[in-house]
Queue: 2 jobs
Job 1
Amino acid sequence: MFSKILIANRGEIACRVIKSARRLGIGTVAVHSEADADALHVRMADERVPIGPAPATQSYLAIDKIVAACRQTGAEAVHPGYGFLSENRAFRDALDAAGIAFMGPPANAIAAMGDKIESKKLAQAARVSSVPGHLDALADAEAAVRVSREIGYPVMLKASAGGGGKGMRIARDDTQAREGFTSATNEAVSSFGDARVFVEKYIEEPRHIEIQILADRHGTCLYLGERECSIQRRHQKVIEEAPSPFLDPETRRAMGEQAVALAEAVGYESAGTVEFIVDKDKNFYFLEMNTRLQVEHPVTEEITGLDLVEWMIRVAAGEALPFGQDDISLDGWAIEARVYAEDPVRGFLPSTGRLVRYRPPAENDTVRVDTGVDEGGEISMFYDPMVAKLITKGPDRASAIAAMRTALDAFHIRGIGHNIPFLAALMAHPRFVEGRLSTGFIAEEFPDGFDGADLPAATGKRLIAFAAALAMRGAIRDRMISGQLPGHHPSVPRDWVVRVDRTNHPVHIHTVDTGFEVTMAGETLSVIGEWALGATVIEAFIGGERMAIQVDYDGIGYRLTHAGAVMTAQVISPRAADLADLMPVRIPPDMSKYLLSPMPGLLVSLSVDIGAPVEAGQPLAVVEAMKMENILRAERRGVVRAVLAEPGSSLTVDQQILEFE
Ligand code: ADP
Ligand code: ADP
Ligand code: MG
């Protein structure tokens, strides 16, 4: 076994690997860029080596610097995590040359599976069911049309070197095939430096279901069940679960055996994932193989009881797997939600800044948090916007979902925009709960994006009662501090008004032993629970229902967040409520005539000039941050009056880019 390993990654996955290594008594070395000098993974590791400036190309992707860091620290093996160099053949070759072990498959497997055309050819040879398609690079747009017609529309044009959902286009007719070929080729060249595009059948209403495999170098290769990852936004996974609500044992076994056959065909070693697309009749087709640990591996760990990182370490050290296929059993249900620094109400644009508050829910038998940051940490524009993964487990799917809802309600992040409200809305969505998933779920169910979950009337009432109880408890405390007798609170008024969106809800509050009874519009709800004043996440029974509510108080009112919905409530005296009705509404300054940068980043390009008319939805500018190009679009029609920022310049959040007439 190794005595020291180096983790060539950052964020949650570096922390995750360090945890397993530590449990095995193995020393750990973190590498870090200048931007990450104080990052959590660096503080968790036994040793640290700085490897260069913030941009990944000069640090986390610099093969020579990472090999040098191994030499300098005496690390005997490298875990590459995911992303960065994890599927890079040259990295594996460089480590081999330096006599350093790599926790992953041999170079030929990385190379074969890194290319979609090559891997599909291999899959066919290994008798793995593949998407019907034409496994040669297309010569030109006319070839794309000809082959698409042969396959039959709809089809998907794909970059052979593609990954991360880039370089893919769906085509439903000749025109779209021609256009799709051109745009997929352009994206393939700019993202991967490889123009090859091929075409395959587009599977309608597909589910993404993948098989986890694990192989040693002594001839054992096992499948560890499946993960369903159909909840995707722009071909990127958001929610994953294991098992899949769709598979039966026969299909699971058939997919598992084909995944193993493919892995064996390339002499696979270590953990890997074979991705399939599954149609509504449970026909499954090979998509691609990821030759690394996958982001969503924890759901498999939770239902198999295996620590995949531990086995990657052991396999790389030459150990044989001490269990066989019959020893693998799937127990219970696990769900993972990816917490991204992306603001769902701003079109999911990445958000950067300092984590003023970062309090994940407590970990226990049902809740696991794989996190890469902590309070006070900085989310920078240089890396992936994923901050943590929240994993919940239960005996069945319904209890895993219920645990996820509670955990999301308790996850407290302030300082950056994040997608927790969106994740909560997904968990509450009836179609998700029924398990009727497809990769089109988010696009179909949230066609206009997301601007906060709906607040059901019953929940709204409970939140009003809760706001009243919060204010009451505060008022009681204030009276006690100012020297009044504890016990009964004769001087605390019982009648208040909870004001929500300029609507007054008169309430009468009655104190009981365990909390309060709040009467409004003839209905009485009890609010039962203990909480410290100033607590930011409060659990209480309200009207008999257990709720976790996040509370932000700004000195005037409460902002209450529950299940992805937000209510802003002021609790005031009836007299103040009468006066509030007379107050003029303050009109915020009109910023709609500006295009503002929604995040700090680099202004890559502008597609309009002074005097240009624009239509709603028209792309105006491209801002790069967190390794992603974000297209800023016109909110409504107008004419450009002034250009206020030049391409190439760095933007701060809310910086004005364009002014409209
Ligand atoms: P897939 O490649 O099938 O989308 P995953 O969902 O596991 O599989 O990963 C999403 C993609 O984003 C992968 O290409 C992965 O390498 C990359 N990625 C995800 N998170 C990070 C990160 N923190 N740093 C670098 N790359 C990442
Ligand atoms: P990447 O390397 O970018 O992860 P994949 O080939 O794994 O590319 O595809 C990513 C996603 O695109 C899949 O999870 C699925 O949602 C969708 N997809 C890919 N190929 C097809 C297809 N032939 N039919 C329908 N959907 C597809
Ligand atoms: Mg994929």
Job 2
Amino acid sequence: MQLFVDTADTGQIAELAATGLVDGVTTNPSLVARTGRDFRDVITEITQLVPGPVSAEVTETSCEGMVTQGRELASIAGNVVVKVPLTWEGLQACHVLAGQDDPIDVNVTLCFSATQALLAAKAGARFVSPFIGRLDDIGQNGMALIRDVVDIYRSYPRTLKTEVLVASVRGPGHVLEAAKLGADAATVPPGVLRQLVAHPLTDKGLAAFLADWEKAKASAGSRS
Ligand code: G3P
């Protein structure tokens, strides 16, 4: 399962990329706006920090506008994935970008239903991003959507080649369930990525190992 980091904070990305555990990055207009920096500068820097896919989202809403902006974004670096919203216009833009002679990878975002995900795959998306946390927020079951989308794509492996990129992740439990369902990727905020490694028994066990080691060294020293 690929793990992407869901942020436009290049400091955090650099720190996490150094672990070798970050397969890609996703951004959206809200995350880039939070940095207060120029959009193109931020995306350029991220593509240099992480060799894997870096999602950069269009802000145009017409098919034509998204295609033009998508091509501009893709020209920043070879690992840019153009993110378009799951609207009719977005699906058409995906079809154009993914289907051109020199195809551009597309991540269809703001997916909240399995039928939307089916259409994203038919439009040729490399990734579809179902937003599970936002579904949970309104009392629906985000993980049930992941199960449905994974099942549907698995039923048509020859024609539906889109990867399920679990988005709007709120905690480690979401990552665990997504992995159990066989989702291709999850994009997680930096804090959640750090939580994935944390376990109190690991800390306690390591402290005990080190204390025992120090004791053994001290007693060996006192015998020599
Ligand atoms: O980047 C898309 C998605 O992961 C946003 O999540 O937390 O704003 O619902 P969130």
